[in-house]
Amino acid sequence: MTDIIHLLPDSIANQIAAGEVIQRPASVVKELVENSLDAGARQIRIVLKDAGRTLIQVIDDGKGMSPADAQMAFERHATSKIKSVDDLFALHTRGFRGEALASIAAIAQVELKTRRPEDEMGTWLKIAATKVESQEPIACGVGTTISVKNIFFNVPARRKFLKSNETERRNIFTEIERIALVNPDIEFIVIENDLQTLHLPPANLRQRIVQMQGKNINQQLIEINEDTTLAKIHGYISTPQYARKGRANQFFFVNNRYIRHPFFHKAVMTAYEPLISASESPNYFIYFEVEPDTIDVNIHPTKTEVKFENERALWQILMVTVKESLGKHNAIPSIDFDTADAPEIPIFDPSKSPAMPKVNINPNYNPFQSSYGSGGRVAKPLLDWEELYRGFEKEGRESPVSPDSETPLFPENSLQEPDSQLVSPKHYQYKQKYILTSVKSGLMIIDQHRSHLRILFERFLSLIRGRKGVSQRMLFPERIELTPSEASSLSEIKEEMEALGFELSDLGNNSFAIQGIPSELHHVDAVALVRSMIEENMDGGGNAMEQLQERLALTMANFTAIPAGKPLSEEEMSQMVNQLFACQSPNSTPDGKAIITVISEEEIESKLK
Question: Can you give the pTM of this predicted structure?
Answer without folding.
Answer: 0.67
